[in-house]
Amino acid sequence: MRLSFVILLVVCLVALFGVAPLLAQDQEDVRGAFISSRPKETPSPSANRPRPRPRPTATPNGRASGNPSTNSTAHGPTPVKVNSARLGLGLSLFMRDSNGLAVRTDPSHVFHKGDRVRVLLETNTDGYLYIFNTTNDGLPVMVYPQVELDDAGNYMQAHVPFEIPSSLATEERLRWFAFDENAGDEKLYFVFSKEPLRGVPIEDNLIAYCRTGNSMCPLRPPAEVWANVQVNLKTPLQTDRATEYGAAQTNSERQATTRGLGLAQSDPEPSLIMMATSNSSTLVTALDLIHK
Fold first, then answer.
1. Which of the pair, 99 or 64, is modelled with greater confidence?
2. 50 in any annotated domain
3. How far are the Cα atoms of 76, 138, 142, 208, 209 from residue 11, in angstroms, in the given order?
4. Confidence band (pLDDT; 50, 70, 90) for 152?
């Protein structure tokens, strides 16, 4: 399968859902624990806010530290510690209906040529999000962060939703991931970490890296990094999956996403919620999208 779309000049494949590993454990408190960490009230709408970079933290020598773009080497950013809550990741898959609306879709849905989807992600704590893609078990490529999105940053604030591709893209064709006529095995890996992944450039470093030549991007993760992703993928997760789909995306979800606002406890919940079973520093899950 191939997902064909263009985000500015970069081709990336992202469609959602499903959970890996299959050993993930369902727990009654997963959804409640995730949603209860949202603020009780929705923040007041304001002008669109850019995706933030991590706040500087004090170092032993008294200097500020915390921006991966200035605190990094050519091989990747210096890790920046953020808060220590048990990591959680919420995902919702939206499909374009015949009226052009984004409606919640079951991850197990079988997709066909012409179907279009968009992914909404939400974390329960601050951290760094990476998305990798493999096609027919081929070599992985990093599809997020990207040079053309958020200045190549990938820092997530707790419960501030992030959508890919963006519904604010200038052209309709850039607002969705579109399935073409080529069926196959497409897998997306989601890595949410309290600290940046060593050896994977982001922000200014990623921009500089990709400028060295067109063949360098999309970036392929170093073998050691990918091996660690595979190891973390085997760690069981606590999960909670919704049972009802078909509802259109709400105005509060759209505002929170496009204006950089946090979701409130009363806002729609993610279709799928995954939480680490311990205070680990990294949460990794993967999905296979069915395309026939």
1. 99
2. no
3. 22, 16, 11, 19, 17
4. very high
Contact partners, residue 241, CB within 8 Å, separation at least 6: 19, 26, 107, 271, 272, 273
69-78, 100-109, 265-274, 276-285: segment of lowest average pLDDT:
69-78
CB-CB contact of 177 with 15 (8 Å): yes
Q: By C-alpha distance, which of 97, 78, 66, 128 is closest to 281? A: 128
Q: Which of 6-20, 78-92, 166-180, 202-216 has the lowest mean pLDDT?
A: 6-20
**Residue in 197, 151, 194, 145 with CA at minimum distance from that of residue 52:** 151
pTM for this prediction:
0.79
Residues of the domain holding 271: 3-43+66-289
Residue 149 has pLDDT above 80, yes or no: yes
Please check whether residue 225 lies inside any domain of the structure: yes
Structure tokens at 35: 């949603």
The CA-CA-CA angle for residues 190, 117, 253, to 5°, reads 80
- Measure the N-to-C terminal CA separation of the chain; round to a whole number of Å: 8
What's the number of domains the chain is made of? 1
pLDDT of residue 57: 43
Residue 130 located in a structural domain: yes
Judge whether 56 lies within some domain: no
